Automatic annotation (TrEMBL):
UniProt xrefs under Pfam families: Ank_2
InterPro entries to which the protein is assigned, alphabetical: Ankyrin_rpt, Ankyrin_rpt-contain_sf
SUPFAM superfamilies xref list: Ankyrin repeat (SSF48403)
Keyword Coiled coil appears in the UniProt entry: no
Domain of life, per lineage: Eukaryota
Stretches the record annotates as Disordered: 79-101
Record keywords, A-Z: ANK repeat, Repeat
Descriptive protein name: Ankyrin repeat domain-containing protein
Start-end of each ANK repeat: 18-50, 51-83
Length: 101
């Protein structure tokens, strides 16, 4: 379905009522293939929602390390800060530390 929409006229950077894009949701859920398709379709990898979260923050918070790496390779900024000053790199470190316990 995603491929069909992207080949059609669906705007890749459309936002919902909290400013999140399809890339935010795909990254949060760890849908690597969808994230790749969105990036290839020129999705804005550093777009922020109303809380300043990027898709990279979403991937980090959800512990989706493969998606995190894919986004970094696509030039997502790991040092971008949310409204509370948290970076995606910090979120990923917190998730990694929790999984080691």
């Amino acid at each position: 379905i995603a491929e069909f929409l992207l080949k059609g006229s669906a705007p890749v950077n459309a936002i919902n009522n909290i400013g999140a894009t399809s890339l935010h949701f795909a990254a949060e859920m760890g849908h690597y293939r969808i994230v790749r398709m969105l990036i290839d379709s020129k999705a804005e990898v550093n777009a922020t929602n109303i809380n300043g979260w990027t898709a990279l923050h979403m991937a980090a918070y959800s512990g989706k390390e493969k998606v995190f790496q894919l986004l970094v390779e696509a030039k997502a900024n790991p040092e971008a800060k949310t409204q509370t000053g948290t970076t995606a790199q910090t979120l990923l470190s917190r998730v990694e530390n929790k999984s080691l316990r």
